[in-house]
Amino acid sequence: MDGADNTLSRADLEGLSAAEVRQVIRDGRWTGTSKRHALGREQANIVILREEYALDFMRFCQRNPKPLFLIEATDTGNPEPKMSAPGADIRTDVPAYRVYRDGKAVEDLTDIRHLWRDDHVAFLTGCNLSVDQVMIEAEIPLPHLISEPVWPSQYVSNIACQPAGIFNGPQVVSMRPIPKDLLVKVIELTSRFPRSHGGPLHVGDPAAIGIDDLDNVTWGKPNLVGRGQVPAFWACGITAQAVACEIGIPEMITHKPGHMFVTDLAVVDPVR
Amino acid sequence: MDGADNTLSRADLEGLSAAEVRQVIRDGRWTGTSKRHALGREQANIVILREEYALDFMRFCQRNPKPLFLIEATDTGNPEPKMSAPGADIRTDVPAYRVYRDGKAVEDLTDIRHLWRDDHVAFLTGCNLSVDQVMIEAEIPLPHLISEPVWPSQYVSNIACQPAGIFNGPQVVSMRPIPKDLLVKVIELTSRFPRSHGGPLHVGDPAAIGIDDLDNVTWGKPNLVGRGQVPAFWACGITAQAVACEIGIPEMITHKPGHMFVTDLAVVDPVR
Question: Which residue of B lies nearest to A126 if distances are taken between CA atoms?
Answer without folding.
Answer: B272
